[in-house]
Design goal:
The protein is α+β, with helices and mostly antiparallel strands. It contains 5 helices and 4 strands; from the N terminus they run H-H-E-E-H-H-E-E-H. The relative contact order is 0.16.
């Protein structure tokens, strides 16, 4: 089965990003997959809606979509950080290029902003539990 133009564009974007590799230190290979998994789970357990390509979807559907997108990206060589995941996979449609949006309690935001805020909350909570 061949890859269409959108698939090649997606693969090229991932390859370009993968060339830079993880950007958050020596333990990024352990931390990044865990943070990414937590981000994907966070959207699924939120009470938010997720818009992609103009249509709103339930949180569980958003989680499933992003998990499939992540699995495909990993099969094409993606091994980036949680920040890379947000920038390259969780922010916009790889087919149309349209930004994803999140709506929580009637308030809409770009998905990139929602995921970035969620990642900051996760990291802050983790650092507050770390021994000093």
């Amino acid at each position: 089965m061949g890859m269409g133009a959108a698939g090649w564009a997606f693969a090229f974007a991932l390859a370009a990003g993968a060339a830079t590799g993880p950007s958050s230190g020596p333990d990024a290979g352990v931390v990044a997959p865990r943070e990414i998994a937590r981000l994907v789970a966070a959207i699924g357990t939120s009470d938010c809606e997720f818009q992609r390509n103009g249509r709103w979807h339930a949180a569980a559907d958003a989680q499933a979509h992003l998990q499939r997108k992540l699995e495909r990206a990993r099969s094409l060589g993606f091994n980036g950080t949680a920040d890379d995941f947000i920038e390259r996979l969780a922010s916009r449609s790889s087919l149309s290029g349209r930004p994803y949006r999140v709506r929580c309690d009637g308030v809409e935001a770009l998905a990139a902003d929602w995921f970035t805020d969620e990642l900051a909350r996760m990291r802050a909570a983790d650092s507050s539990r770390s021994p000093r």
